[in-house]
Amino acid sequence: MYNFIPTQYQLQSLCCGIEFPDLNWELQCPDPHQPSLIRAIYQEKRLELHHDLPGLYRFADWLPIGRILEGSGSPITYKSHNLSGLLGLEQLYITFNGYWPEKGAHMNTGTFKECEAYSVCARTSNPKGVMVVASAGNTARAFARVCSQNKIPLLLTIPLDNIGALWAEAPLDPCVRIIACEKGGDYFDAIHLSNLAVELDGFYPEGGAKNVARRDGMGTTVLSAVTSIGKIPDYYFQAIGSGTGAIAAWEANLRFLVDGRFGSNKMKLMLSQNSPFLPIKEAWDQRSPVMLPIDDAVARNQVEEINAKVLSNRKPPYAIKGGLFDALSDNGGSIMGINNQEAEEAGELFLQHEGNDLEPAAAVAVASLMKAVKENLVDKKSTIMLNITGGGIEKFKREHSICYLTPEKVFPIHGDPEEVKRQIAEMFHK
Fold first, then answer.
1. Where are the alpha helices (DSSP H) in 320-430?
2. HSE-up of residue 65 (Cα within 13 Å, Cβ side)
3. Contact 86, 351 (CB under 8 A)
4. Across the beta sheet with 154-159, what order do the strands follow?
5. Which of these, 338, 329, 218, 367, lies nearest to 275 by C-alpha position?
């Protein structure tokens, strides 16, 4: 249907620098010397947009993909006039991920996690079997849509407390199955379930931050911004849970430096978390190269308090080579804490002045931009990229019929691992 040649690339280990082919869903160095991410090294050093390809795939030069899947949208970038005027900013550009057809945004799950899913599921070395994805909500919704539409077997694990985030515009194909950890569990507990599942024959991990396709899919937000603006921004604003999107933004920035046509600066990562759950901020404020200890019960209580549940990763890729600590260190980034009230007010302000509703994490990012302006942390004449990671959900729900999804099984947080694995295996072999 499309005139597409698989993207040419190698993988590079950040622990030792060796390059190797992507033969078998590689998630780490073949001979790891230390915990490290791997990175895609693309044959095309200069990004050319493929306007003949749909949605996300216009950025195929810098995506590790071997096929085109149906249904993808793409990040859209536009220059703000209303919000920028309110804040006194001269060059505020909004990269919107979600549903806003009037602006050309067609991510029907309302989240930039579709960028990940359409890249991951099109990855060159996509293996046989059942992909396992753990999620706090948005990632599950995106992968459910992509895998259902393209008949890719998928097991989703999600906290039951976040199940309200799991909805779809149509019933899912039976190739997608959902399980949950009981009430009181969080994203960390959902990851535990996914780790048990991948111990079974015929299941494989999506990989999270270790998957180059996930990071480079998220990096298309920066590809959209830079090619729309015509230069690399000075500041990059985003709310983070794991920080994988910020790592992706940094990596995209590095590729543009090699490209050479869009400037030579490194964007300052202006990141934010939803207070009181601030584990990454607390580590970075101390310039600690590793995450600080946190009691499980305290962390769960903090997660219960925050509105932006998707920002609740207790085990982010922070200390790993090529991870968030390295990204922040390389460009002098910072992290702010934003409470629920600040985020809610920012979301209302965006709706009023820009014209669309925001997912709670995106509202945290807007609030952080407002705080940065108020505290004179940015030059008002500088070029600023505001990554709206999710929006238009309420708009989509008003304009479409949707169905809420339910898990097939709910497991206790401290359930017997062998019994959990037995029940998961049974689901797929009835």
1. 324-331, 340-353, 360-374, 393-399, 417-427
2. 26
3. no
4. 203-205, 130-134, 154-159, 176-181, 409-411
5. 338
Chain centre to alpha carbon of residue 95: 14
**Token digits of residue 254:** 């590095």
pLDDT at 115 over 80: yes
The position carrying tokens 């308090």 is: 305
Question: Which of the 8 DSSP states describes residue 63?
Answer: S
Contact 159, 135 (CB under 8 A): no
Q: How far apart are CA 333 and CA 176, in angstroms?
A: 38
The second-level CATH assignment, the architecture, of 76-110+213-397 is: 3-Layer(aba) Sandwich (3.40)
Q: Residues 162, 163, 164, CA angle at the centre, nearest 5°?
A: 90
Residue from 59, 176, 164, 200 nearest 119 by CA: 59
Q: Where are the beta strands (DSSP E) in 182-290?
A: 203-205, 235-239, 268-274
Q: Which amino acid is at 176?
A: V
Q: How far is CA 35 from the centre of its chain?
A: 21
| Res 187: pLDDT | 85
Helix/strand/coil for 395: helix
Instruction: Report pLDDT for 18.
Output: 95
317, 291 Cβ separation under 8 angstroms: no
**157 phi/psi in degrees, rounded to 5:** -120, 135
Q: How far apart are CA 372 and CA 369, in angstroms?
A: 5
Q: Which residues contact 388 (CB under 8 A, 6 or more apart)?
A: 94, 95, 96, 97, 98, 350, 358, 362, 365, 366
CB 32 within 8 A of CB 13: yes
Average pLDDT, the chain: 96
Place of tokens 């991510």: 107
